[in-house]
Amino acid sequence: MNQFVLSGLDGSNPLAFLAACGVARLATLRWPQLSPVLHWQRRGVWVPVLSGVPSVTSEELCQELTQAPAAPIELFEVLGKNLTVAPNQFAEFVEKAEELAEKYPSGVDFAAAFGSEVCTDDKGDRIRYTDLCFITGSGHQDFLGTGKELQECVDHNKIHHCLFESIDDCDKGFSFRWSPGDARHYARRWKNPGPEGAWTNWGANRLAFEALPLFPTQPMEKRLKTTGFRRVKGQTEFTWPIWEMPLGIDEMRSLFSLGVLHGEGVDSEVVRGRGISEVFRSARVRIGKGANFKVSFLASRAV
Known about the structure:
By secondary structure, this protein is an alpha+beta fold. It contains ten helices and 14 strands. It is globular and about 50 Å long.
């Protein structure tokens, strides 16, 4: 067995955290008999460490990750390019995911992560969808469309760069807007950043999309609840833990749903008793007015 320190990822960055979770999930799908695990080490910043995988080089690891059973993009075509669909259309997608579970084993997991047909907007025209969906078609930025494009254009070299070097903004377009660097306030710049377009890291976004099944949604209190998110005083926030004991994806999924992480104050003694070493929180904000707005994460804070 081998151990890989994914030094290009900083656990305080929500995009990097999601990318690390995506790595753990893809590794588990690639080597289910080995039960890969993930934990974090403090090396100036919190970096993820992947263990329980075959003794391969870092380049070979990235090649294997690109060959793992990825998000079933063909199945998502039932929904189109975005999650802004009618309840009956989403119900059709869920039924098809169940029918084709043998061909697309992760289809039902993505369905649970995307939303629910029983939670709709005030008019009942569209479903309520995951709080991790920041793009809905405006400005030619499509949520499922971006997932498809990233599957096609990200190779093992892009994966290697983000895991072992950096998640710098080296690629144009195809961003889920999960990096705080996407929150570009016009008022803090000398010119409008809109025409510049989105610059991001394709490898990190590609891996982060694969983490969605670890953050399912559920109808709750007459609204849709996304694992890891809370709403306080009109603001939506994403909270995630950092742990130092190696965990598989099932344990990770349980950890993300712990209620003790999502209160106004996080009790250090309680969370450390659960094996959690650090907790980060980032606000989900809208930047811009009217229909011309963007959704992004702000820089995280340790809580």
